[in-house]
Amino acid sequence: MKPIMSKSEAAELVRSARVRHGLSWAQIAEKLGTPLVWTTAALLGQHPMSPEQADTVCGMLELDDTVAEALRTQPSRGTDPQVMADPTIYRFSEALAVYGPALKELIHEEFGDGIMSAINFKVDVERRSDPEGDRVVVTFDGKFLDYRW
Questions:
Q1: Once rounded to an integer, what is the mean pLDDT over residues 9-13?
Q2: Catalytic residue flag (residue 6)
Q3: Which InterPro entries match (predicted)?
Q4: Same-domain status, 55 and 96
């Protein structure tokens, strides 16, 4: 029996097929009826897809059942150090290193003792025009989970 394709290998095939078919991540998300950032993360291996979602994507991208099978599997979430070294990804780490303690203080001041959930979570990215150069707006929308004793 052949092992199931890794999520990282499936992600590389999805990336290549998406480019070769001239499709945007937004077009794929629209076809699936799922949020853009979630869809992109799932196709890059960070979330399992339903059989219907995996089959739809593989049909759009002309990928075979081995890719769909990998897209359905449960991921090992997170990234490796090589991915974290990418300048775009590293800047998110840098921003949290600088502003994380302030955000924590402000969350505690506004909501009390607790955390923002990254499981019950929405994230969005958009472009905003600015005379000094376009701005990247990233919105994290997480449910507040209070500590209960």
A1: 97
A2: no
A3: Cyanase, Cyanate_lyase_C, Cyanate_lyase_C_sf, CYNS_N, Lambda_DNA-bd_dom_sf
A4: no
